[in-house]
Amino acid sequence: MTDCAAQPRLEDPGPARGEGKDSMTWTFSVVRRVRGGALTLAVAGLLGACGGGTSQVEPFVAERVLAFGDEASTLTPDGRKYSVNALNDDGSLACEREPIWTQSIANIYGFVFAECNPNSIADPRATTLAAAGAQVANLSAQIDTAEISPGFAQRTMATVMIGTNDILALYAEFPVRDEADLTTELEARGTVVGQQVNRLVDRGVRVLIATVPSLGLSPFGLAERLAHGDTDRAALLNRLTAAFNAAIRTTIYNDGRKLGLVLADELVQVLSENPGSYKLSNVILGACTVELPNCNSNTLIVGATSATWLWADDHWLAYGGQNQLGSLARGRAQNNPF
Q1: Which of 97, 126, 219, 325 supports an S-S bond with 65, CB 3.0-4.6 Å?
Q2: Straight-line distance from the first to the last Cα atom of the chain, in angstroms, rounded to the nearest whole number
Q3: Pairing relation of β-strands 64-69 and 125-128?
Q4: Distance (Å, rounded) from C-alpha 331 to C-alpha 78?
Q5: DSSP string, 245-285
């Protein structure tokens, strides 16, 4: 059965897009390199396979954007990201440059976040509830807070991306807790995320829900593979991530009019297997020499750049990853029949 809310799209490889330039052209096929040859994932025709038309009679235009989740969506009160922070020529923070994926969504509607508002817009109309260290158990409280203030406007767009901290925390209990036990727990937590997404939908909110990137492909996961001889720890992390993401996908409403599924796990897999096609030069190391969110363009390892490296540290994305995630999410926001 075709999941109409989850048709994978990736930015067509090509010249780097200019800052603030809209992405309106998308490819419906992705080439993955695999051992022994190449596997083409054909996703052409998925829109038609959903049954009936999915084109928007009137494109959805949000009145407000809310961001829920963890570090992947967090802006600190002074505008820093849990990625590589861009700087102005005078060394000051340029929070509007190299946006994280939630900023990319807000930019569609001409909004900025209060935490990154260099032009002092009176009503930024984008609010982040995401917080560093957040786990699935914190998502309900984030939504509760947003419902009180700023509230859910008639046309509210919400982004949700959470679970990395849960997977890492539970993985740390291996092998005291075996894989089957950890998988069961992560499936339960993924179900909770799906239920909270459905809660937002029931309140009339349009939702972009992003899966968790495959953590076995992160610098942390690759290092764990080398550090332990008991099992392939990178493969284990990928299986745990997949179990969590699968539970989200089987719980959320399958209705592209109300939500869009952004497949960050598949995105990171494609970028890792075929980096050159997406202008990435490194997909195995973190670029930063200092802890996030204090990393900026002056605190990178030799040869690293935010735009050409996938990872900022051992498990959070640099702009090279955030840019592709933002492009994927923008495509979902602009093409789902919200």
Answers
A1: 126
A2: 21
A3: parallel
A4: 29
A5: HHHHHHHS---TTTEEEE-HHHHHHHHHHSGGGGT-SEEEE
Tens of pLDDT along 59-111?
889 999 999 999 999 999 999 999 999 999 999 999 999 999 999 999 999 99
127 SS3 class? strand
287 inside domain: no
Question: How wide is the angle at C-alpha 265 spanned by C-alphas 336 and 257, nearest 5°?
Answer: 15
Q: Provide the whole-model pTM.
A: 0.85
Task: Report the C-alpha gap between 137 and 162 in whole angstroms.
Answer: 10
Query: Domain span at residue 66?
Result: 10-275+320-335
Of residues 37, 29, 2, the one with CA closest to residue 13: 29
Residue 250 in any domain: the answer is yes
Tokens for 190, please give them: 């993924």
Predicted confidence (pLDDT) per residue in 180-219, tens digit: 999 999 999 999 999 999 999 999 999 999 999 999 999 9
Does any domain span residue 210?
yes
Give the CA angle between residues 181, 183, 184 to the nearest 5°.
65
In a domain, 306, yes or no: no
- The long-range contacts involving 143-150, CB below 8 angstroms and separated by at least 24 positions, are 143/68, 143/196, 143/199, 143/200, 146/66, 146/68, 147/203, 150/64, 150/66
Under a CB-based contact definition with an 8 Å cutoff, are residues 297 and 86 in contact?
yes
Q: What is the CA radius of gyration of the chain?
A: 19
Closest to 197 (Cα-Cα) out of 188, 207, 189: 207
Token pair of 251, please? 């719980």
Q: How many domains does the structure of the chain reveal? A: 1
